[in-house]
Amino acid sequence: MKVLKRMKVKEYLEERRKFGTLHFTLIDPHKTNAENAEKIASILKDIGTDAFLLGGSIGVDPIEASEIALKLKETGLPVIIFPGDLTNIVKTADAILFMSLLNSENPYHIIGAQVQGAFLVKKYGLETLPTAYIVIGYGGAAGYMGMARPIPWDQVNISIAYALAANMLGMRYIYLEAGSGSPQHIPPEVIKSIKKTVPEAFLIVGGGIRTKEAALSVAEAGADAIVTGNIVEEDIKKAEEIIKAIKKKD
Ligand SMILES: CC(C)=CCC/C(C)=C/CC/C(C)=C/CC/C(C)=C/COP(=O)(O)OP(=O)(O)O
Ligand SMILES: O=P(O)(O)OC[C@@H](O)CO
Ligand SMILES: [Mg+2]
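That's the Geranylgeranylglyceryl phosphate synthase sequence above. Prediction below.
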């Protein structure tokens, strides 16, 4: 595997997905400081996490976030901004999920924030990963702050139609979000149907994944990457188990 420094994040993700489901560790700068992030990063890198997502819905201090990004970068793994808003955009990251919350009721979260952030992203030289952000079910803080109209869990066809429309609009990455801390993760049948409809899309799935069984069911349904946030902060051993399970190290 080539080292990331000579590789674009997009190429790195494509290369890695050939070997199975990826794991993304989500770090929220509002909840984790640079020292703690460094510890988490070194533990989870050794177990096999593939990249770091950096972001939060609320209370992000861009100065702290840029310090955290620097620490995470020391692992050699990509640091990808997962923006809750403009304060999440920092120069020291490698890339950004340049995302539109497709099922928001507020155009600000569909195209407004992106217009406001575009010059900054360009100025910082961040690699952009064009992402459809689709909120399903619970929604959590992201759903609330992003004024999403979450798609009901059982309305599988509506979720498929969103993913198809995103793909037709040229969005390479599709993030299926159940909401941070969701009591339920994205149902496997939703993931399966979307994977079948848009097999070429890079499917990121997150929200409410807290056990290895849950992670495995999401991976087997066709997720290209699984995101875990809360469990990393609450019980790092469980996060390690999740990574080992999807990397088939158990
Ligand atoms: C600035 C650019 C390019 C885009 C704006 C991005 C959009 C559309 C944001 C609106 C939706 C939103 C608020 C997403 C948040 C995504 C995120 C960082 C989630 C991480 O989890 P938290 O929501 O912080 O969960 P906790 O409650 O566990 O802290
Ligand atoms: O914190 P959890 O529930 O793992 O959710 C992760 C992520 O999808 C939130 O945006
Ligand atoms: Mg958060």
